[in-house]
Amino acid sequence: MLYPENVGEKLGFNDIKELLRNECLSLMGKNLVDKMQFITNFELLNKLLSQTAEFKEILMNDAPFPSANFIDIQYLVNKIRIEGAFLSEEDFYSLTLALTTVFQTIRYFKDREEQYPNLQALFEGMAIEQKILKSIDAVIDPKGKIRPNASPELNKVIREIAAAESESRRRLDIIFRNAIKEGWSADGSLTIRDGRLVIPVLAEHKRKMKGFIHDESATGQTIYLEPAEVFDLNNRVRDLEFEKRREIIRILTALTDEVRPYSPLLIAYHGLLTKIDFIRAKASLAIKLDASMPILKNEPYLKLSNARHPLLYLNFKQTKQTVVPLNIKIDETGRIILVSGPNAGGKSVCMKTVGLLQLMLQAGMLIPADSHSEMGLYRRILVDIGDDQSIESDLSTYSAHLTKMKNFVEMANFHTLVMIDEFGTGTDPQFGGPIAEAVLQVLNQKKVKGVLTTHYSNLKLFANNTEGLENASMLFDNVHMQPMYVLQIGKPGSSYAFEIAQKIGLPEQVLKLAKVKIGDQQKKVDTLLVDLEREKKQVYDTKVEIEKRQKRLNELLEENKKLKEYFDENRKKLVNDAKQQAQDIIKGANKLVENTIAEIRTAKADKEQTKQARQRLEQEQQKLKLKADKPVRKKEAEPLAVGDWVKLIDSDTTGKIIELNKTNAVIAIGELMSVVKVNRLEKIQSKDQPVKQSKGGYADYQIQQRASFSPEIDVRGMRGEEMLYELEKFMDRALMMGLSSLRILHGRGDGILRKLIRDYLKKYSAVDQMEDEHPDRGGDGITIVKLK
């Protein structure tokens, strides 16, 4: 149940339906939009939403869907049902096109067995009668005309007509050439009058030719004559044409009789086309709104994540602006959300977003919010928005509001969603406030769910002290005096009446007088709210900054983890290399000893040669000893301090100490920050810092990273926040690799991603310039980034 009847108009649902109508391909689809209902059956609604979600997947990621010839065949079926009636050639042609689309649709889903179960259920158990098409195809050609061989009689008549026309034309040509030769014919050629071929003859020679005069020129100087010799032949052609028409009617009547038994099946096919067009339209609109299917609950519940007002989203999309997303939760703890804050701060948009998305959902439409949003079902939606004063009913604005409040109190229950804008206004606040508070208390006792907006302080205090009610406010930047359009749950907001008045330029004298006239208690409350709003703004900004730092920290930890894994692997390699080297030294030493002994034996222990061999052996032993001792020599450890240049003991990687504590040090290795144990570091002089990284260690890691890193990133289809996250990682790695040029694929679309990317890249001092790719290679769908 929706109350009042114009809920769709007040929440903007009528505009959504108009957008949906424009997405339909057929009149029957548009008619189905007009018949949309508020659905409270959980199973039915879940099925309709799932069908739309599946069709959205088809439009976005599957092969093109057969979307031509969604023709309304209802009137053809109604015509077929009448005994003795027959369909025309055009009617059968339309029926052929519609049936072809039906069979293509069924084949499309059968080729994707079990991939789209909810859509397949639309034609489950439906007979596929290809015989209808075969019967029609035997009579009607692909151009929608009856085939000459549709029957032997028709074929015979058509041949006779052709022969008669040919003979008539042959004789007429002879007579015409003779008339020209005699000078009887006027300038021109054979023409047609009253469907008959005639000769243009000069009026003064009309007596010289026998025939029937059909017409004359405007001046009367030329008459159009049908010679008597071809008159009978033309009459024969006319008779044959009538005979042909009678045969065609007989054939079409027989074909209609053949199709008539399939009338119920044709109605089913018509219903399938109608539903498919309607679901396709919902999916198409969902893509434009970036809508998705939330988690559906069979209870009155609502938790929206990154929700956007659909009409505002489309409007901002055209002007290349972004909508601030809404996050709100309505459950048993906070059944009624009381939203306060300054005028033009977004309170009404917040409330209408909740109401409109709930209406769209319970009409079977996907909503512009994250897919992990959770939404339940309400049996009633009660709305009080705008001025409903009535001259005819003798109702003032406040009387109209009170009338609605009366109905709300009577009709509302646990399964009701209430939307009230500017709750309690329209009369003296001294009396309107308490009445509104009483209504709110009764609604809360009935466990009604809803969103209300207000400026009344007594309602804010009541919500703060009452279980089931939750204060909320729209954040306001009181430094720049402008709304932020962000909903903050848990605290009421100030109306910022004096601050906004001051910004607008209301004279100081007026502001001072106004402040004197309001009570001290009210001033204290409003001042407290303003201070609270300022603190909320600071907390919000701090939260955003912490999230950015946390994201950066996670990235650094991930990089550090990869670096550690590489170092561990490299250490193992060095150990293996050292073992292999030691084995080679031992082999070389053994070989040297063996050769020396062989020389001594060959020289038969000659003293001089033996002495020389021993000297060579001692020299080689000394060299091997120096070679073996070199890797294990260590310098005496020097104390470390912040700012010292150090290198990792087990590699040639160097860096500078940024932070230092007892056991750990934070060192800067190029663009990368890394936490390393102090006992793994060795102090070096700044002049010893290598200008160019030697091969091995971190340099090898960089080479591997550079080899696996692509200077091109594709962000098409990403949301703004996701895109910026990927872009930041991409830029960090590019700068660390020392690249000079990058390519960012963002597509054309509405240009939103392109603008967002270029605005974001301006914060990088290393960016020299940004430009579009060459038109032949993508144009303004690709941004080329030149780095300094």
Automatic annotation (TrEMBL):
<dbReference type="GO" id="GO:0140664">
    <property type="term" value="F:ATP-dependent DNA damage sensor activity"/>
</dbReference>
<comment type="function">
    <text>Endonuclease that is involved in the suppression of homologous recombination and thus may have a key role in the control of bacterial genetic diversity.</text>
</comment>
<dbReference type="InterPro" id="IPR000432">
    <property type="entry name" value="DNA_mismatch_repair_MutS_C"/>
</dbReference>
<keyword id="KW-0694">RNA-binding</keyword>
<comment type="similarity">
    <text>Belongs to the DNA mismatch repair MutS family. MutS2 subfamily.</text>
</comment>
<comment type="subunit">
    <text>Homodimer. Binds to stalled ribosomes, contacting rRNA.</text>
</comment>
<protein>
    <recommendedName>
        <fullName>Endonuclease MutS2</fullName>
        <ecNumber>3.1.-.-</ecNumber>
        <ecNumber>3.6.4.-</ecNumber>
    </recommendedName>
</protein>
<dbReference type="Pfam" id="PF01713">
    <property type="entry name" value="Smr"/>
</dbReference>
<keyword id="KW-0175">Coiled coil</keyword>
<dbReference type="InterPro" id="IPR036187">
    <property type="entry name" value="DNA_mismatch_repair_MutS_sf"/>
</dbReference>
<dbReference type="InterPro" id="IPR007696">
    <property type="entry name" value="DNA_mismatch_repair_MutS_core"/>
</dbReference>
<dbReference type="InterPro" id="IPR036063">
    <property type="entry name" value="Smr_dom_sf"/>
</dbReference>
<keyword id="KW-0699">rRNA-binding</keyword>
<dbReference type="GO" id="GO:0072344">
    <property type="term" value="P:rescue of stalled ribosome"/>
</dbReference>
<dbReference type="InterPro" id="IPR002625">
    <property type="entry name" value="Smr_dom"/>
</dbReference>
<dbReference type="GO" id="GO:0045910">
    <property type="term" value="P:negative regulation of DNA recombination"/>
</dbReference>
<comment type="function">
    <text>Acts as a ribosome collision sensor, splitting the ribosome into its 2 subunits. Detects stalled/collided 70S ribosomes which it binds and splits by an ATP-hydrolysis driven conformational change. Acts upstream of the ribosome quality control system (RQC), a ribosome-associated complex that mediates the extraction of incompletely synthesized nascent chains from stalled ribosomes and their subsequent degradation. Probably generates substrates for RQC.</text>
</comment>
<keyword id="KW-0540">Nuclease</keyword>
<feature type="binding site">
    <location>
        <begin position="341"/>
        <end position="348"/>
    </location>
    <ligand>
        <name>ATP</name>
    </ligand>
</feature>
<keyword id="KW-0255">Endonuclease</keyword>
<feature type="coiled-coil region">
    <location>
        <begin position="529"/>
        <end position="630"/>
    </location>
</feature>
<dbReference type="GO" id="GO:0043023">
    <property type="term" value="F:ribosomal large subunit binding"/>
</dbReference>
<feature type="domain" description="Smr">
    <location>
        <begin position="713"/>
        <end position="788"/>
    </location>
</feature>
<dbReference type="GO" id="GO:0004519">
    <property type="term" value="F:endonuclease activity"/>
</dbReference>
<keyword id="KW-0238">DNA-binding</keyword>
<dbReference type="GO" id="GO:0006298">
    <property type="term" value="P:mismatch repair"/>
</dbReference>
<dbReference type="GO" id="GO:0030983">
    <property type="term" value="F:mismatched DNA binding"/>
</dbReference>
<dbReference type="InterPro" id="IPR005747">
    <property type="entry name" value="MutS2"/>
</dbReference>
<keyword id="KW-0378">Hydrolase</keyword>
<dbReference type="GO" id="GO:0005524">
    <property type="term" value="F:ATP binding"/>
</dbReference>
<dbReference type="InterPro" id="IPR045076">
    <property type="entry name" value="MutS"/>
</dbReference>
<keyword id="KW-0067">ATP-binding</keyword>
<dbReference type="InterPro" id="IPR027417">
    <property type="entry name" value="P-loop_NTPase"/>
</dbReference>
<dbReference type="GO" id="GO:0019843">
    <property type="term" value="F:rRNA binding"/>
</dbReference>
<dbReference type="GO" id="GO:0016887">
    <property type="term" value="F:ATP hydrolysis activity"/>
</dbReference>
<dbReference type="Pfam" id="PF00488">
    <property type="entry name" value="MutS_V"/>
</dbReference>
<keyword id="KW-0547">Nucleotide-binding</keyword>
